[in-house]
Every structure is written in C-alpha cells, then in structure tokens.
Sequence to fold (315 residues):
Amino acid sequence: MNGIKIRGTGRCVPEKTVTNEDLARIVDTSDEWITTRTGIRTRRHCTTETHTDLCVKAAEDALARAGVSTDEIGACIVATVSPDTLVPSAACCLQSALGLPQDILCFDLNAACTGFLFALHTMECLLNSSPRKYGLVVGAEALSRLIDWEDRGTCILFGDGAGAAVVECREGWPSSPAALGCRGDDALLRVAGPGTGEPPLIHMDGTKVFKFAVETVPQCMDQVLQKAGLSVEDVDFFVFHQANARIIDLAVRKYHIPPEKYYKNIADYGNTSAASIPLVLSELQEQGEVVPGSRVLVVGFGGGLTWGGMLIEFA
Ligand code: UT7
Fold:
C-alpha cells in the first residue's frame, strides 16, 4: 500500500471566547481549579457560526496552503460527533460548499477524540484506490451544543473548532505506521443519540478516562515507534490530543521529550475532541515548526473507547 503525507493544514475557531471566570458565573468552579486540573484558560463557543462554517473555512485554508484545487480531491472525511445535521453528513455539506467532485466518497466518521487519526488512516486506504492523489481530512466539533450545564466536571472542558489537512498519496511512499483500536464502553464517556430518548449531552467519568488515557498514550507511542523502527529521538515532533495538560505532561516526562518537540494549545481552546489534533497541526505548520520532511508522531484517545497513534510525515 502507498502512504500519505500531509501537504497543507488549516483551521477555524469561532469568534466567542469563554473564560474560566465566565464559567465560574454559571457553575460552582474557579479559574484556579480549572487551570491547575486541566490547563484550560479559555475555549471558543459557536454563536452565529455553524459546524459547516468551521469546516469550510478550515478546509479552504488547508487547500490554499497545500496549493491543491478542489477538483484534485479524491475523498473527503469529516471526523465529528457534533455535526449540524446527521443527514446530510458534515462531509456532504462541505462537499457542496466547496464544490468538490461528485464521483468521490464524502462521509463522516465518529471515533470521538480519536476521529481525526481514524480518518487519516481511512484516507490512506481510500486514496490507494482513487485516480486522484489528494484527500481532504477534517476534524470539526461544535461541542458547546452538547454541554450539560449542570455538570461542572465536564462543562468546563469542551470547546468548538475545526482543523483540516490536505493529504497526498504517492506511488512508492511507505504507508504511515499506525496503531489504532477500540473497546466499546459507554459508561465512561457517552453522548446519547436519537435511539435513547435522552438529551444529547456529554457524560464522562473523568477520573477513569484520565487513567485510561495515561495508560494508553505510552502504549500507542511504543507500538508506532516499534512499527516504524524508530526511537523517540528520531521523531521531529509529538502531537497529543489536547484533553488535559496533565496527560500531556506525564507523557513528555516519561519519554524525556524536550519542550521544543511538543506543543500545547489546550489553554486557548480546551478539549475540541476530533478538532484538537488538526488544530495543533495547523498552528505548527503556520509557525514553521513542521516543514516538508518533518516526522510527527500523533497520539489520540477518547470516547468509544477509541485510541490511536500514527507517524505522519509532511510533504
Ligand atoms: O477527550 C476525551 C478524553 N477525555 C479526557 O481524557 C479527560 C480525562 N479526565 C480529566 O481530564 C479529569 O478527570 C477532569 C479534568 C475531568 C477532572 O479532574 P480530576 O482531577 O479527575 O477531578 P475529579 O473528577 O476527581 O474531582 C475532584 C474534585 C471533586 O470534589 P470532591 O468530591 O473531591 O469534593 C469534584 O466535585 O473536584 C470537584 N470538581 C470541581 N471543582 C471545581 C469537579 N469539577 C470541578 C470544577 N470546579 N469544574
């Protein structure tokens, strides 16, 4: 199988910034608690923006940065749990807004916070059987719609945003080493759907999910490094799902990763689920921290439960 590389990234976040002090006026919490327990200082919430607006802007930015036109796109995947509509999918809404070709697959993928990684891996498989060389992968969430404002343990965590990547697949490029998995367990992290009769709000056993994340991140890293035949020193940059700064700190301490090789933007955006990894990738590319040839180890974990690691190169 031929591999993919990331050619261009883009992002979009809503205008409205919600501070920890804003939340302390709604629920019994404090800036001090939120900052020390999570690393989050602000998050963005949609007001007038739709989920599709975020996807379109992020995708347009990624296409422009990649120098790829819409008619070169061979598939479009939107990783999300919070689309505007279940049908049409967010990917079909994006296809229509951008004018992507009609003879390609456009679909949504739900793997919660690991969605962007599942989508990258799926895109690599799809592009191997496509006459077009480029794929559009978006992670987008409007999680502010799913917040339970009576639960101070979760309402402070989540934010809205979208990140996008245009990936390229070429004959002879090795497939991206990946370790992805799932274990059905809806007791730990759950958003009810139409079949339940319950309101679609986020419920999470934070302590147990924290423990799962801390155990899972090193397992994913070890598996990907082993598959790639690389050591930590061979990796140019590490990108972690931004769920809690403490989870990232534990991982970088365990692997002795120097500060110039990883990045946190959780203070600004909170946990944006499927959008969190491409938001980081987009900021890194814009800042010149990743350049053509950079090898980035990306790690995600989340509801499902789902998890994944992938070594992805920039083109
Ligand atoms: O993206 C998908 C994956 N998600 C994650 O990886 C999230 C993983 N979990 C976490 O990040 C953390 O578990 C949380 C940030 C969600 C919670 O932090 P914690 O250190 O695990 O706190 P806790 O739930 O154990 O609660 C500790 C105390 C409790 O009070 P008592 O029982 O000790 O008196 C909570 O009621 O903190 C209280 N608490 C709060 N206090 C002020 C919970 N939420 C808040 C709050 N403000 N917002």
